[in-house]
Amino acid sequence: MDLNKRMLIALVLITVILVVWQMFFFKAPTINRIIGDSTKISDTSKVAKTKEKDTVIRSRVVVSRKEKTVSTKVAKLPYKSTDNSDTINITTSLYRMQIINHGASIINCYVNKYRSVKGDTLNILKGIPQSGITLYSGDYEIPLDSISFNYNKKYIELSDKKVDTLLFSWKNDTSNILLGYVFNNKDYKIDIFYKVNGIDVDWVKFNFNNGLAYEEKYKKNEIHATKAFANLGGTVEKYSSKTLKKGDVSYVGHSSFAGIRNTYFTAMYISDPKDVKGFDIHFVNDGILNFSFDKDYIHDTLNTVSLYIGPLDYTILKSYGGQFTDIFDWGWKIIAPISKLILNVMLFIQRFVHNYGITIIILAVFLFLIFFPLTLSSFRSARKMQELQPALKELQEKYKNNAQKLNQATMELYKEKGVNPFTGCLPILLQTPVFFALYQVLKSTIELKSVSFLWMKDLTAADPYYILPILMGISMFIQQKFSNPDPKQKYMTYFMPIFMVFIFLNFPAGLSLYYLIYNLLSLLQLYIIHLEVINEKKSKPDESK
């Protein structure tokens, strides 16, 4: 069996094994789940005691939206109505944000570092009120989204100072509300403090509605990547849109953060878990999830919560500690550690070269060198197997009616010639999880977004001129020509490169760049094998004397 057949069989086998293991043997960490139309929201009062790292008390119910009931009454605070809301602009070194005084709601967040397909600064919100606050007092809920707050500043620019605070206030004859947003020039995380006087508040709900914005060009990818997540006592649980279509998620208990994410960006509320009552996640439609974060209200003090709206940047989220990096999609559990290792190696290289295109090239060289001894051994084994084909055919003809004798004679021939037929498969089996992990990292790494290299303006987008996929196809064709001299396998020489070109046409340019470099290095390896063959042929006449 030639190398290409073994490669295809090995790749198919490892894929089947991973998929079957994922489907039937791997179960994501869950807590008591009830799915069904008969389940009411009131079921969340049955709190299950669970011993974990933080010894939290919690229960979670997936609730049918048709059956979900709300027992509270809506109360509205008196205020002076106005048709127009004021917009406050906040500018930091990382983003430009807009907040309206109606409900003190965030409506836009332009991230300075990243560009849209049109080339302008990317807005990861939708220009509509997306954050909101609701107070709960006894049987009453008091939404603040219609309150026209007074504010202390119309513009905030943090170019010269590290921190600034936007204050919102509202009061009448009997009560008043103070709400503050603290912005840091070097951080996407916004610290929020709040205090209510004159209203007997039991708890507060922080809402985030209408999901994160995404560009229409990448709609399918973003819908697939959109997930909700939450830290449940030290374990981050994720909820796909597919799961949430079956019903909303309501959770009672402690959680240090909860939010939503798409391919490259996330929004989440963060808090000390001991003050958190729970959270709710609601499916709106494909690519759009709402979530809320509930906190007990502590009287006679400033209460706090934080809101992160920004990139899924590994370095930033890791700096917060805890399990924040677990919200990333690292792939199947079996390859997640490899994915993390590859990203950390890539970030380490980037610290010295400061160019992600060069970083990917160095990463390809680094991984090629790691696997070089194994793949070289594989190529040598394949060549020896090709040399044995005439002898193997003779044995097949000689023992065509005796399978046992044929197997015995074949093993003896392998032993005599020093050939191990399984040597060729081992490097492929070892490399396959690494390639899966590479795909997972390079297709969704925010560090590559809006990063230009050569003619490419964004390494997370497809090569606009398809140069990399075509060059990769050409390099693969040459590689097939060298490594597959068998005329019977001629169709593979043409089919595989063409097939891979079409596969990579819409893949991120960073991924295409990696595989092109790896293919070129493999050609160098084949050349080394070719030189060995020539040297062996030259030495044969001397050995015969």
TrEMBL record:
Keywords: Cell membrane, Chaperone, Membrane, Protein transport, Transmembrane, Transmembrane helix, Transport. GO terms for biological process: protein insertion into membrane; protein transport. GO terms for molecular function: membrane insertase activity. It is a multi-pass membrane protein. Residues 356-530 form the Membrane insertase YidC/Oxa/ALB C-terminal domain. Pfam families: 60KD_IMP (PF02096), YidC_periplas (PF14849). NCBIfam families: yidC_nterm (TIGR03593), yidC_oxa1_cterm (TIGR03592). HAMAP family: YidC_type1. Belongs to the OXA1/ALB3/YidC family. Type 1 subfamily. This is Membrane protein insertase YidC.
